[in-house]
Every structure is written in C-alpha cells, then in structure tokens.
Structure to design on (81 residues):
C-alpha cells in the first residue's frame, strides 16, 4: 500500500504505510509461507531512507518486487508436474 501512495505522489502516506508494514512483519522470521520476509523488511527500510532524501517522486520501474523463497518456488514447480 505504501508504494501505491508513492505512485500517487503521496510521500507522507507512503512513509506511514511502509512503517506500518514493517511493524506488521516484525513477528515473522526471515522466510514465511514462501516469502522472503527478511528481504522485504530490508527493502522497506531502504525505501524509508530513500524517501528522506526525495520529494516522493520515484520512477515506477524502481519499485521493489516481493521475492519468493527458492524452496517455495521449487515446491510449486514440483506440484505442477
């Protein structure tokens, strides 16, 4: 949700949602249900730092992606065959 705010040039809303997201992810380990949560937390912290130095204008192609853990993608591939 934070990046939706960012795309709409709402830096304040983006920062608030990124912080809220970090708080929500806090109880989870580095991987949860196939999602690389540790990477996601790290990326959110990086973006919070980036947003301190910008006016909230960020090219869409630079927005992050959620990465699935290797074991999850291998399991999903095995299930398809």
């Amino acid at each position: 949700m934070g990046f939706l705010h960012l795309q709409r040039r709402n830096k304040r809303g983006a920062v608030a949602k990124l912080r809220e997201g970090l708080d929500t992810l806090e109880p989870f380990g580095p991987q949860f249900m196939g999602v690389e949560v540790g990477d996601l937390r790290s990326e959110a912290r990086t973006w919070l730092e980036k947003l301190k130095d910008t006016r909230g204008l960020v090219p869409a192609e630079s927005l992050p992606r959620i990465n699935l853990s290797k074991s999850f993608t291998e399991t999903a591939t095995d299930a398809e065959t």
